[in-house]
Amino acid sequence: MPDAYDPPMTPLVLTILGDDRSGLVRAIATEVTAHGGNWERSQMAELAGKFAGIVLVSIPDERVAAFTESMVPLQGLLEVTVQRATSRTDGDGMLQWTLEILGADRPGIVSEITTVLDHHGVNIDSLTTGTREAPMAAEMLFEAVAELEVPPTTDVAALRSDLEDLANELMVDLDLGATD
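RE: above sequence
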């Protein structure tokens, strides 16, 4: 049963970065809870010995300043940046698409793909990339999955054509499709 009084909440985005070790997520979660907040969404990962993440929390309005101050002592463990979340109004009517890429790794793939996406006004909601050894070969493969927001006014045929031309030039497999 909800409390008789639910305080107004402020959404905050935390970015975190530090040397990977146990207890980092707990340190942030403890402060969120101590300030009456709610952990809404997060994406975190360890990369090359560093732990990085982005977290969306909601903190009662009257506790935002105290919560923000509570992040300062964590600087010995993590670098934490606290920013007020902004609401997006430009996402209305956007088409949801997924882009998958797989091919031989080489410098510049992400730059070239994102240049084409930007040219067509496509927004990247999420991007996951990685490299792995190719089966039965000595080369490295690059793989990426992107969740995209495509404006309804975008010429999808032109977008697809530009991406396919680039995929041929980069010698990668590319799959672009609407998300159900």
